[in-house]
Amino acid sequence: MSTPSIAAVEPGSLAAWRVALRPKTFPIAAVPVFVGTAFAWAQHGTFVPWAFVLAIAGAILVQAISNMQNDVGYTVRGGETGTRTGLPRATANGWLPVPAVRAAIVVAALVAVAVGAPLMVYRGWPVALIVASSIVAAWAYMGGPKPIAYTPYGDVTVFLFFGLMAVCGTIYVQAGTIGAAGWLAGVAIGLLAASVLTVNNHRDIAHDATTGRRTLSVVLGAAGSRAVYRTSVLGAFALVPAIAWTAGSAWYLLPLALLPRALALLAAFDAAPGGHAYTPLLFRTVILEAGFGMLLAAGALLSLVP
């Protein structure tokens, strides 16, 4: 997948905002909502269309906040040096001013609260807690005195908010309860979401170590980072039979169709020479998560067919 070249981006343009927003990562936020909605329908017999739309919008807004805060946070902290091999950042390249991106983050947060308000009224304090904590976590990933991105806890944060909480929170919004199959699905999606961050951090191990970032990949080293990636990806697929058994339908086994693609991705990850070679693997991991989630959602819906 391509990104705008430095020469092609005009300051203040839509292309510049696209760099800051990184819409190619939005499936990480949207897929859990599809999975949770499908599970609520299949397992609990409920589907509330307006809640689904608002949940999708809220999830994407939180992802956008995280991406913009990531962009501006690295720039302000001087994390952009000549040794970094990741995707370009809009503020670091002068395509967007830091105050403009910070203002956009505030606007996105206010809109996210407005979008979440009807869901809070509908399901009460648990949803209010999910909305508030999600926005705070998105900001805190690269904001505050000690950003999450500078600690080994980024992978856990992604697992919780873009997996377990997103899937199970959506089921709760739809049905008012969750169930064992829903919790297992949240873990599986969370593992794949965290694996996306692992690729990103594995690619930047050398650079991050020179800028004070103690990501899980930096702490564990290259070999440990590879092990985390492999465990996360294979762990998600290992949970599929348990999900199918708990849900009571073989249709939930559909994500196993992607296992050969997952194994090929793991082999490519191990064989990558480093640096920019990991960037396409990052997007392939996003696609794997999206495919896994949509097949899991499809399996849940197909289980409703007599």
What does this structure look like?
This protein has 306 residues and is mainly α. The N and C termini lie far apart (40 Å). It is built from 12 helices and no strands. The longest helix has 28 residues, at 49-76. It is globular and about 55 Å long.
SSE blueprint and pairings:
Elements: H1 14-21, H2 26-44, H3 49-76, H4 98-123, H5 125-140, H6 154-175, H7 180-203, H8 205-210, H9 216-238, H10 240-247, H11 259-271, H12 278-302
Helix pairs in contact: 2-3, 2-6, 2-7, 2-12, 3-4, 3-5, 3-6, 4-5, 5-6, 6-7, 7-9, 7-10, 7-12, 9-11, 11-12
Provide tags for this entry.
306 residues; mainly alpha; disordered N terminus
Give Rg in angstroms. 19 Å
Number of helices: 12
Structural class: mainly alpha
Percent of residues in helical segments?
Answer: over 70%
Calculate the mean pLDDT score and round it: 91
Order of helices and strands: HHHHHHHHHHHH
Distance linking N and C termini = 40 Å
**Uncertain segments:** 1-5
Strand coverage percent: under 5%
